[in-house]
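Is this the right way to post structure tokens for a design question? Let me know if I should format differently. Anyway, here goes:
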């Protein structure tokens, strides 16, 4: 690809930390999404229900839809998306969670160069 072709693509990185204060509601919503997914095979559906009942992070992953974040923005088309969720130890006072500081992390740029693109 030439530079003019690749400059049309932008990688948007977003990191969000959420507090789950209603795990039952989260699980119920995830199971509802799984039950209404017309493209999910029945054997996969049973496994997915079990996974979201055991792990709030898994339940959240079933409810997050990257397309919803950008669908209303004019002039763009979602080409590729990936996401994951995991339970973490969180201390809002710890320096690592200070989002206002510039960390000068060049590893993210290096990582972007080696990531393989998956098409949506």
């Amino acid at each position: 690809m030439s530079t003019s072709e690749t400059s049309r693509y932008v990688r948007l990185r977003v990191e969000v930390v959420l507090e789950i204060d209603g795990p039952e509601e989260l699980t119920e919503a995830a199971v509802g999404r799984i039950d209404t997914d017309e493209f999910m095979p029945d054997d996969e559906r049973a496994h997915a229900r079990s996974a979201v009942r055991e792990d709030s992070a898994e339940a959240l992953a079933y409810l997050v839809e990257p397309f919803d974040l950008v669908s209303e923005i004019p002039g763009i088309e979602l080409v590729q998306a990936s996401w994951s969720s995991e339970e973490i130890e969180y201390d809002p006072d710890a320096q690592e969670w200070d989002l206002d500081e510039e960390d000068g992390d060049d590893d993210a740029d290096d990582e972007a160069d080696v990531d393989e693109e998956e098409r949506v």
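Format looks fine. Someone answered above. Worth noting: Helices lie at 3-6, 23-35, 42-54, 56-63, 66-70, 107-114. Confidence is low (pLDDT under 50) at residues 108-120.
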